[in-house]
Amino acid sequence: MTLIKSISGIRGTIGGQTGDNLTPLDAVKFAAAYGTWLKNHTKRDKLTVVIGRDARISGPMIQSLVVNTLVGLGIDVIDLDLSTTPTVEVAVPLEKADGGIILTASHNPKQWNALKLLNEKGEFLSGADGAKILEIAESEAFDFADVDSLGEVTRNDAYMDIHIDEVLELPLVDAEIVKQAGFKVVVDGVNSSGGIIIPKLLEQMGVEVVRLYCTPDGHFPHNPEPLKEHLGDICKLVVEEKAHFGIVVDPDVDRLAFISDDGEMFGEEYTLVAVADYVLSKTPGNTVSNMSSSRALRDITQKHGGTYEASAVGEVNVVEMMKKNNAIIGGEGNGGIIYPELHYGRDSLVGVALFLTYLAEKKMSVAALRASYPQYYMSKNKIELTPQIDVDSILVAMADKYKNEQVSTVDGVKVDFAEDWVHLRKSNTEPIIRIYTEAHTQQKADELAVRIIDEIKAVAGI
């Protein structure tokens, strides 16, 4: 089964059987559930929802289904068409809309699509609200509008430019100093909307852009998750072009990775570390990342006199803890930057603009900047789930095995050892168990991962 229903939305592969995959009927049903929840939640006579999509092949089909389902409920739609996740998040409050939907399966391959759901602040829904939508979808208690009360659709394709303008107006973004630095940057847009918006931002900051896979046709030229094993082409091109660095985003542009000038990965974990280092140097304060993120952010935060906290995995959990702890920057170690000065959502544009400003100010190479940070290495692995695997019992057994260590069960099981750590959790977006480890060398991180995977398999009998 490749249809995953969770409190954060619905995600699945296109085609196949209703209820098992993301078919047109499933898209309509879930859009209707969201619209129904919104009507119950806001109690307003006339509602507006902002919708945008990435460049997936299935995007126009899902877009049409979702837009017209909301119209059928009597809800007005502002259709951004081809867009990004952070752009929709920015648009919702600017339009004073009641909610938003981004049609994207983020880093999943092209056969996947999804509905990501936002509230009136342009932020992801709480777990409680997501659960209510799942209940409504299950009950199919929809009340559609009569012919005189149908919603209306307004097309607005200006929001990528508006989003860029909002980023450039941030006090810590200095386009002039960036322009003077004369940067040359390679951009891998994985043939989605990042191939449009990231080069536009760079050019407005006076950066020379070399485009790689920037045609938004949804035919991803490599696995769209911005990991080292998928990025050989851009690593090679950065060196060939003698570029200052490379930029990689995922299809919906909420994850950001850099390639150093030597063609090596800057490390997606260090995207947040570098940007936070800059922000904290100008505006000291607290930070938050999730439990699967590098300890390097903690070290940098403490260097600047701030306090670091770790949340459960998931953007909504990071945002909740950021608000609670008055964090001035946060995010996730997968390359997601959350900078509340603009909005509470992972935003690659914010990350790029702040990073460029910092680099221009530091007057040093990207490779040298990376070498200046605490050296941690991660190993990110997964075990495919089958119906026979009881994940909960595995996690309980692993927590018990390491009960004499520092163990957290807030989100799966995280075991903090003196020099390294391991985090085990069931994915919200794929049928897998994620096994993340971190240590001071890659070899130690890999060895810890192998050991833990062997222990999990022994417990599960696989």
How would you describe what is shown here?
With 462 residues, this protein is of the alpha/beta class. It has three domains: 3-157, Alpha-D-Glucose-1,6-Bisphosphate, Chain A, domain 3, CATH 3.40.120.10; 162-371, Alpha-D-Glucose-1,6-Bisphosphate, Chain A, domain 3, CATH 3.40.120.10; 377-460, TATA-Binding Protein, CATH 3.30.310. 38% of the residues lie in helices and 22% in strands. It has 15 helices and 20 strands. Strands 1-2-6-5-3-4-7 form a seven-stranded mixed β-sheet, sandwiched between helices. It has a five-stranded antiparallel β-sheet with strand order 16-20-19-18-17. The protein has a four-stranded mixed β-sheet with strand order 9-8-10-11, with helices on both faces. α10 (296-303) links the parallel β12 and β13. α14 (391-401) crosses α15 (442-460). It is globular. The mean pLDDT is 94.
Give the overall silhouette. Answer: globular
Total number of distinct structural domains:
3
pLDDT averaged over residues: 94
> What is the helix content?
25-40%
Q: What would you report as the Rg, rounded to the nearest angstrom?
A: 22 Å
Alpha-carbon distance between the two ends: 21 Å
Strands, total number: 20
The CATH architecture term of the largest domain is 3-Layer(aba) Sandwich
CATH class of the largest domain: Alpha Beta
Instruction: Classify the secondary structure makeup into a structural class.
Output: alpha/beta
Going by CATH, what is the homologous superfamily of the largest domain?
Answer: Alpha-D-Glucose-1,6-Bisphosphate, subunit A, domain 3
| CATH fold title of the largest domain | Alpha-D-Glucose-1,6-Bisphosphate, Chain A, domain 3
Biggest sheet, spatial arrangement of strands? 1-2-6-5-3-4-7
Spans where pLDDT lies below 50 across 5 or more residues: none
